[in-house]
Amino acid sequence: MSVLVLNKKEVEKNLTMKDCIGLMRETFAALAKGASSNPLRSIIRLPNKKGLMGVMPGFAGENNIFGIKVLSVFPENYKAGISSHQGVVILYEGDHGRLTAVLDAEVITAVRTAAVSALATDLLSRKDSKVLAVLGAGVQGRRHLESVSHVRHLDKVFVWDIEDRNSEAFVESESPQYDFQIEAVPSAREAVKDADIICTVTPAKKPILESQWIKPGVHINAVGGCTPDAQEIESGLMARARLYTDYRESLFNEPGDFLIPKSEGLITEDHVKGELGELVLGDVSGRVSESDITLFKALGLAVEDLAAGYFVYSRAASANTGISLDL
Predict the structure, then answer these.
(1) pLDDT for the residue 176
(2) Least C-beta-crowded within 10 Å: which of 49, 62, 214, 290?
(3) 265 and 277, same structural domain?
(4) Would you state the pLDDT for residue 75?
(5) Alpha-carbon gap, residue 312 to 318, rounded angstroms
(6) Same domain, 105 and 203
């Protein structure tokens, strides 16, 4: 059995943000049509509570592949200069069940996560949105700046992080790449007060975004935290917003952003207006008025990883790159 192994460099070379945004549109349409399947992930926590391992299986029907992503998440890794997300995406072909490829998951995770948020932003934010707030100045903060800039013409970006030095480093590294101003601010409240689009990309256990801080008409991508004890969004804001998600089953079982306000009696499962794939297909309505606050709660799905992994695999195989191993 010949298996193609693709490292981080190969993934980065073959998966652009622009390509991935279009790919995620196709992926969510297939999921909404029932052509793909996405079981709930399994999470294994280490006894020392420093990190966890996520196991994410799925079937991507549009490409007739199935597989799994195995990923470790250690939020404090940044202190050691190490990525917080590390793992592999493993692909099998759907005709005979043969192992096809093993890919580094770090870049796939970073790019597809931000690409999905860009898709949600394109479908739900006001067309005239020009001011972006990024809460969390890590890898996902940078990737979300990149992805949102593909779908909206930005004039200004505000960034906040719990560590001031991270926000300052963000501005220093990202400003030369864009033709709009990027400014670090000392509080989340300051970052979001004039924002049209807000991306929360932190491992916060307590809310970092409050309803009273934001103006009408905002779109929010709530990305950080997919466990029941993680909550970036104040419960009252979750209740106030028109809520969308990537996959209902994941939303109803995994994130504190939904489960905590539900336990408080502020929302029910009927609060969800639709899934991203339903928006792509036009099966549900998005923003109804310019003053709506829309909120996309992302969980991150295996079908995203499989679609992105197959895209990279196909390009690398065509170019005869990567390492082919006989197992």
Answers:
(1) 97
(2) 49
(3) yes
(4) 80
(5) 10
(6) no
